[in-house]
Write a structure and sequence with these properties.
Helix content is about 70%, strand content about 0%. By secondary structure, the chain is mainly α. The chain folds into two domains: about 1-80, no CATH class; about 90-150, no CATH class. Helix 6 packs parallel to helix 8.
């Protein structure tokens, strides 16, 4: 039986970070990652996390950036940390702003909500503080995170 390299060598996803950083054709890479996310391929949380990191750090100027980020997020129903990585990306387009708003207004106190709070750091101060007001009332940890984000 042949081992699935995703399960036996998940660290390959982290090593792709360096390869993508050195690449001159980031649009082709982003398109390939979007194709992977649209496929039936089983991806581990670690791999999704690194795809989000790669997207934010190296593929944010590509045409497929929004599709890539949202493709990772859509695969994160069962993966708290990978979803949190996407939510902390400080981009306010392609639906992230609305997703964060819904999470912050729920009052939840978990990795997704704390990351969503961090993702608001590039909003205008009044809008950010309004959203963080709901969030801060959820728990003492939410209050602490909200106060930190407001000071960024």
């Amino acid at each position: 039986m042949v081992e699935d390299p995703r399960r036996s060598h998940p660290n390959i996803a982290k090593q792709l970070y360096k390869v993508v950083a050195a690449s001159d054709d980031k649009d082709v890479i982003a398109e390939g990652f979007v194709g992977l996310l649209d496929s039936d391929a089983v991806l581990l949380e670690y791999q999704l996390f690194w795809l989000a990191v790669i997207a934010e750090d190296h593929l944010s100027e590509t045409v497929k950036y929004g599709d890539l980020v949202m493709g990772v997020y859509e695969r994160c129903d069962a993966f708290e940390i990978a979803a949190a990585k996407v939510l902390e990306i400080p981009d306010q387009s392609f639906g992230l702003k609305a997703i964060r708003s819904r999470i912050l207004k729920s009052g939840a106190s978990n990795w997704r909500s704390w990351a969503a709070a961090m993702g608001t750091r590039t909003l205008p101060a009044a809008e950010r503080n309004y959203l963080l007001g709901y969030f801060a009332n959820g728990s003492t940890m939410n209050h602490l995170v909200a106060n930190c984000v407001k000071k960024l």
